[in-house]
Amino acid sequence: AKLQDSPPQWHAWAVVQADGTFVLNSLPEGELEITALADGFVSTNGPGQFHMRYPQKHVLGTNDLVIPIGMERTARLEVKVTDELGRPLKDVQVMTWPNVRYGEWSATILMSDCDNTSDRLLMKADKLFAWGQPVLDFQGVSDDDGRAVLPNLPPDVTELALEHRQYELPPVTSPDGRKQRQASFTLVAGQTNRISLQLEPRERSTISHY
């Protein structure tokens, strides 16, 4: 295997302070890729080949590096979910999955990878390391009025899915001809965006690709 196909990784994260600064200590030399998420803002995209979010890139040498992080406004999404008769549905989990792609070889949900390689290396052998954390900014659960709030979405998010024990989205046909249960929308950054979705009972229709 070639080194560039499986490059060594060092992962670190930090909380941004009230004045907008942050510090990441003891990083190895190499290409630095960085993303950020704050209330109402997400880091702007770095260079990349595909339609997903990319980290901003810098080169880290043996000296300290001071960098600015460009940010753009996020969007708030309110989703109203109802049953086949138009009645509000409670406890529907609504979720999105904005991906960030590192080095054109790995992708994960943005900000779900807030862990430190140093912590993993120092863990005792009998402990399990927690991989991937849920990002509450990108999901919500509907209340008594059938309203779920996804408070802090990157503005290029265009799809959502949902889960409920009795109801689901009607199937739609994707551009490649496959049927899937997702809803599409367009977000306006810096605003509260609203969509309404009418669900159907789980037993009403099934999806088969074979």
Description of the structure:
This protein is an all-beta fold and 210 residues long. The chain is built from one helix and 18 strands. The strands form seven sheets. It has a four-stranded antiparallel β-sheet with strand order 10-7-12-16, with no helix packed on it. A three-stranded antiparallel β-sheet has the order 2-3-5, with no helix packed on it. The longest helix is centred in the middle third of the chain and has 6 residues. The chain is elongated. The two termini are 35 Å apart.
Q: What is the secondary structure topology, with strand pairs?
A:
Blueprint: E1 30-34, E2 37-38, E3 41-43, E4 56-60, E5 71-73, E6 75-82, E7 93-95, E8 99-102, E9 106-109, H1 117-122, E10 139-141, E11 147-153, E12 159-163, E13 167-168, E14 172-173, E15 179-180, E16 183-184, E17 192-198, E18 200-201
Parallel strand pairs: 6-17
Antiparallel strand pairs: 1-4, 2-3, 3-5, 6-11, 7-10, 7-12, 8-9, 12-16, 13-18, 14-15
